[in-house]
Amino acid sequence: MDQKKWEKVLANYTAEKEFIKDGYYRVRPVEEGYQMAYLVPGLCGETLIHPEITLEVINGKAVPIRLMDLETTPTTRLSAKAGDQEQIEAQAEMLLEKFVAAKNLGR
């Protein structure tokens, strides 16, 4: 995962979900490290994660370890412990790009 982009995202997003253009964005601290989530509006006013990625900080680097997506059918649940690291890493890069583009942090 691109650590420089992650640092920009971490500095520019908060635990409070923020609506930008097409959905809600959130980065919050959790026990393992952080969760980066993109949320879409649901039919009843709720928000659904699409996806949420848990990142563990290992030796100063953010490493994606878990992914959950409730907007896919069936729902997606991936874990590094289950051998899904490559898939989680690819999804984390795509989500990171989405966050960078939403606030134009690519400069």
Shape: globular
The helix tally amounts to 2
Q: Tally the structural domains.
A: 1
Q: Please give the share of residues in helix.
A: 25-40%
Instruction: Give the beta-strand count.
Output: 6
Q: Output the strand order for the largest sheet.
A: 1-2-3-4-5-6
H/E element sequence? HEEEEEEH
How confident is the prediction overall: mean pLDDT?
94
Largest sheet: 6 strands, antiparallel
Structural class: alpha+beta
Ranges where pLDDT stays below 50 over 5 or more residues in a row are: none
> Which percent band covers the strand fraction?
35-45%
Concise synopsis of the structure shown:
Helix content is 26%, strand content 42%. It has 107 residues and is of the alpha+beta class.
Question: Can you tell me about this structure?
Answer:
With 107 residues, this protein is an alpha+beta fold. It has one domain. The protein is 26% helix and 42% strand. Strands 1-2-3-4-5-6 form a 6-stranded antiparallel beta sheet. The protein is globular. The model has no long low-confidence stretch (mean pLDDT 94).
Describe the structure using short key phrases:
alpha+beta, single chain
Write the layout of secondary structure elements.
Blueprint: H1 3-12, E1 18-20, E2 23-30, E3 33-41, E4 47-58, E5 61-69, E6 76-79, H2 85-102
Antiparallel strand pairs: 1-2, 2-3, 3-4, 4-5, 5-6
